[in-house]
Amino acid sequence: MGKKKSVAEARRIQLAQTLEKFRESKDEVYTFDSTLSNKERALVHRACKKMGMKSKSSGRGSQRRISIYKIRGKVDNMKGRESLTNMTFSEGAQVVLQDLFTHHPPEDGELGEKLVEKYSGKTAKVRKKKDDIFSKPLMSDTEIAEKVKTLASRIEKDPNLRQINEERSKLPIASFRDVITSTVESHQVVLISGETGCGKTTQVPQYLLDYMWGKGEACKVVCTQPRRISATSVSERISNERGENVGNDVGYKIRLESKGGRHSSIVFCTNGVLLRVLVSSSRSKREDISDMTHIIMDEIHERDRFCDFMLAIIRDILPSYPHLRLVLMSATLDAERFSQYFGGCPIIRVPGFTYPVKAFYLEDVLSILKSADNNHLISASASVPNEDPELTEEDKIALDEAINLACSTDEFDPLLELVSVEGGSQVHNYQHSLTGLTPLMVFAGKGRVADVCMLLSFGVNCHLRSKDGKRALEWAEQENQQEATEIIKKHMQSLLSNSGEQQQLLDKYIEAVDPEIIDVVLIEQLLRKICIDSNEGAILVFLPGWEDINRTREKLLANPFFKDSSRFIIISLHSMVPSAEQKKVFKRPPFGCRKIILSTNIAESSITIDDVVYVIDSGRMKEKSYDPYNNVSTLQSSWVSKANAKQREGRAGRCQPGTCYHLYSKLRSASMPDFQVPEIKRMPIEELCLQVKLLDPNCKVENFLQKTLDPPVSEAIRNAVSVLQDIGAFSHDEELTELGEKLGYLPVHPLTSKMLFFAILMNCLDPALTLACTSEFRDPFVLPMFPNDKKKAAAAREELASLYGGQSDQLAVIAAFECWKHAKERGQEGRFCSKYFISSSTMNMLFGMRKQLQAELMRFGFIPDDVSSCSLNAHDPGILHAVLVAGFYPMVGRLLPLRQGKRFVVETAGGSKVRLHTHSINSKLSLKQSNDCPLIMYDEITRGDGGMHIRNCTVIGPLPLLLLATEIAVAPAKGNDDNEDDDDDDDGDDDDGSDDADECDTDGDEILMVSKSGGNEKVMSSPDNSVMVVVDRWLSFRSTALDVAQIYCLRERLSAAILSKVLHPRQVLTPVLGASIYAIACILSYDGLSGISTRAESVDSLTLKVRATEIDKPLTGRRGSGPNTNRLPVDRSSSYWKAEVHAYEAVRDGTEASSCNEQAPVMSVGTSLRQASSQGPISVASGSGMSKLQGQGPREGSCKRRRRGSGKKSKQ
C-alpha cells in the first residue's frame, strides 16, 4: 500500500472553521460525518484539546465518527474528604480569641446596626482632591494671543524647530489641514482614515489646537492611545515639535502616571483613563466632560476593549454635549464600519507614505529555494505586487466611465491613462459596477493586442468573469479576436504550468511539515538565500514566541555560515528581554555586517527599525486571550489576521523599497480573518462590568454591552459578574453595592482594589502596592538570553522568594522590588539587576506607579498623608499571605500528590487538572508526605500550546481562605473508611469524569443541606465536636465546632468593619469592630501559615551583593530571619506573649470609654502588633470587603449561622 496522504491545507482550514463556528454557537455537541479520514479525526482531536473542548470517536470502520463537546467545568465536592487538613488554632491564637469573645461576645448585639449593601446612588463623602488635568485652561484672549506669538517666535529663532516645521509640512496629512479643521467645526463626529506614516497621530491635535487659538478660544483636546508607551512618546514628540517640555501645553495622563495639568491644552491618555473620567463625570455630575472641547480617539482599528466600551458611552452622551467634537482616527481598513456606527459620519481619507514591497508566499519561497542558482531578487516574474490602497468612490466612477467610453465609442485613452498611470492591482482588476467588465476584457474583445500584453505583464487576473459569466478569453473568442485569444491562452497555460509545479511543491511540503509549527530549517535556508542574493539590508523575522526565537537563534548559530559575528549580528526582540538588548535593534551594524532580528509581534507596530529591507513572516503569533467558555486565559500560537500580515509586510517598506516572505500559502492568506478578534471579546471584562454599573446603576450589564460594536459573548459577561459578586461588588441580583462603588474608585482591577483595602486594614500596604502595580504592568524579571543563564535566573528567583520563606512566585516579586530599592539607594542598582535578572526600567516604572497609586489612595481618603506607619506588618508572613489571598481569591487550587517523574498538578474549583509551569518556584516543591495536598493561590490559568498550566502561585494555609472565601459550610466529620469506595471510583474515571458531574452537584447540595438543617445545630452543639468545614462547596477541612463558630463570627465582623471603613474612611471603627480586626491580625500572625504541609528547607543567605542592600537583616515587624512554615504555638512565658496579652488588656480596659467618632491615641493604621501594648482603643484605616456582604448587618447571635454570599450560586 502507498503512503497515506496527510490532511490537505484546504481541508485543515475547513475543519478549523467548523470547530470555531461550533464553539461560538449555543450547541453543546457537534458530530462530524463518517467521511473524515483517520488523520482528519486525529487533527480534530488535537485542535479540540487546544481549544478546551472534548472530542470522542465512536463506531467502527466506515461508520466511525467523531463528536465534539463543550466542557462545562463542574465541582466534584466529594473530593478532598479522604485526606482532610486539620484547621485548629494555636495556643497563642486561642488566648487571643478567648480574650476577644470574653469582652465582645457574639450575643452582645453591638453589631446589630443595619448594613446598607445596595448602592444608594449617592457618592459617599470622602476626602477627594480634584484632578483637573482634563479641565479646560483658564486663558483670556490676550493670553491666547501671547501664546500664539511666542510659538511663532520660537520657531523663527530656532533652526531646529524650523527644520521640524518644514518636515511637518511635507507629511501627507499636511495638505488636509484645512479640510480637517473645517469638517470638525461643522460635524460633531469625524473619522480620519489614514495609513501608518501619514502623520495623523502627531498633527491632528496640533491642527485643532492652532485652529482654536486662531479663533481666540481656549480648548482641551484629549487624545487617547491604546498603549501607555504611545501616550507618553507622542506627547513628547508633539512637545518637541513645539519647542517646549512635556507638561506645559502638551501633557499626558496614563494609569498611575501623569505630567501636566489644567494649563495643558492637549492631553494624551490611555483609553482606560478617559473611560474612568467619563464614568466618574456621569456619576458625580462633574464638569470634566463639559470642559473638554475635543476627544481624539486614535488607532481605533486596534479594538482595545476600553476603546470599544468608550465608543458606546460617547455615542450615548454626545447629544447632551453639543459643543464636544469627537475625532476618530483609524487605519484605512474597516473605516466604513466605524462611520456607520456613528450614523454615517464624514470620512477624511489620507494616503500614507510607504515604499513598494514585493510579497512572496510559501509556494513562491519553495520555488525560490529549489532554484538555488537564480537570484530571486532580480527576477521580476517571482515577485508578487504589494496590495494597493482601496479605490475611492471617485476612482470607481472614473473607471466606470472609461470602460463605457472604450466599449461604446472605441475611445481608449481615458482607460489606458487610468491603467498605466494610476496602476495597481485594484485598477488592473477593476470590474465595472454594472457589467462586471474588466480592462482586460475590454482590450481583448476589441483586439488591442499590445494593451492585452501590457496588462498580462502587470499580472492581472485572467479568471475574473463579467456579469454574464465570460472571462477575457471568452470575450476575445466571441469577438473573433484570434491573436488576442492565442496570447491569453498561452499566458493561462503558462500560469497553470507554474501554478501546478508550485502546488506540487506546496503539497509535498505540507505533507512533511505541520504548517502550524515553526519550520526553523526553512527559515535558515531562506535567510541564507537572502544573504547570498543581496549584500545589505537588515532582515526582520516574525516568530510567535520566545521558544521559537530561541530555537531559530540556536539553529543559525550552529550553522557555520551565520556563526561569524563579524558578518552577522543576530538579535532577539521580545517584550521581556533586557532593554539594553532591545536597543541593539536600532543600531546600524558596521559595513559588511548583516543584522538579523528575531522578533515577536512587538515589531509590528510598537517600534520602527529603519534599516529593515527584508521581512520573513511566519504567519503565527502568540496572543494573550481569554476563553469565556472554559473561563481560562489562553496563550497559544495562532494564525495572524490579514491586517497583521499587512502590517508586517509594511515593516519592509517604511524607509526604502523592500521584500516580504510570508511562510504560508496564498490559500491560507485568503482564509485568514480580516482583523484580530476585538479585545472586548477575548479578555476578561470585570472592570468594564463594574464601570457599567458606576455609569448607570439601574442598567443591566449585558444590555449596555450589547451597544458596543462587537459585544462580548454572554459567557464572558456571566463570568465577570460572578467574580464581582464573589468580592461583594455586586449583589446576587446584580445590583451595585456600596463596596463596589468604592472598588471602582481606584485605577486598578476590582480584585486589586480589594487587596489594597484589606492590606490597609492589616497595616500591610507596601507589598500590596508592589503586587498591584505588577499586575497592572508586568513583573520585573527578564528572560535569560543564553541557555546557561536559565538555571541561574531560576535560582535567583528562588533566592529572592526565600526572603519571605519561599514557596511563592508573588513573594519573589515583592522581595525583588525591596532588594532593588535598597540596592539603588546604595548605588548598586546595575549589579543587582544583572545578577538577579531584573529589568531596571521595569523597576523604575513600578516605583513611579506605586507612588501614583499611593497618591490615589490618599486622594480618596483611604490612607493618611503620612504613610510611614501603614506597612509595619509588611513582613509578617501570616498577614502577608492573607493579603495575597485577598487579592487572588477566588483563584484557589489544591496541589495533588506528585506522581513519580511527573510535574505537579493543581485541582481547581471547576474540577480541572492543571499543571504547574516549570517557570514557577513551586514546580520544585518538596512535600513532607506523599499524600499532602497543599493549597495554592494563583493569578490565572493559561491554556497554551502544551495544555493548561499555572505560572505564578503561592502556597497558602487554610486560615486566610476560611476568613476571606465567599462561603463556608459545616457538615459532620466522617471517618476515612467511608470514602474508600469513592477513591476507587475516582481513580478509574479519567476519561468520563464529566459524565459524573451531576452526582457531584448532588453531593454538594447534601453538604449544604446538612449545614442548613436542624442536624447542623446538633453538629455545632458541643464546642469539642469534630466537624468538616467546606469552603466554596469543594475544599474540606477538619476542625472543631468552637473554632468554626469563632471563624463565622470573625468573618461577619470583618465584613462589617470593611464596609464601615469604606463608607466612612475618616471615622474610627466601633470598639467591637476595632478589637475584632486587631484579633484577626493577631491570629493571622500566629496561624496564617499553619497547615502548610511543605518541607521546611534551609534558606541560604543572599550573595554579598544583596547583603550590601541590607535586605537579609531582620526587618521591623518580622520575627527572626524569616517565617517558619511549621510555626509552633507561642510560649506563654515569652516577653512577646506577655506584650500581646497586655495589648488585649489595654483594648479591654479602654473599650468602654472610646467612641466611634474619636481619633484617640490608639492603634491607628500604622500600628504594628508589637506596638499595641502601649496603646489604647484600636483604630484602623479604611478597608474593603473581602467576601460577599449581607443585605442586612450580621447579628452577633448568628455566629453559628453559615455566612452566605449574597445570592452566590454554586460554582460549576
From TrEMBL:
Residues 181-351 form the Helicase ATP-binding domain. The keyword Nucleus applies. Residues 1200-1212 have a biased composition (Basic residues). Residues 1165-1190 have a biased composition (Polar residues). GO terms for molecular function: ATP binding; DNA binding; hydrolase activity; RNA binding; RNA helicase activity. Residues 978-1005 have a biased composition (Acidic residues). This is DExH-box ATP-dependent RNA helicase DExH6-like isoform X1. The gene is LOC110429192.
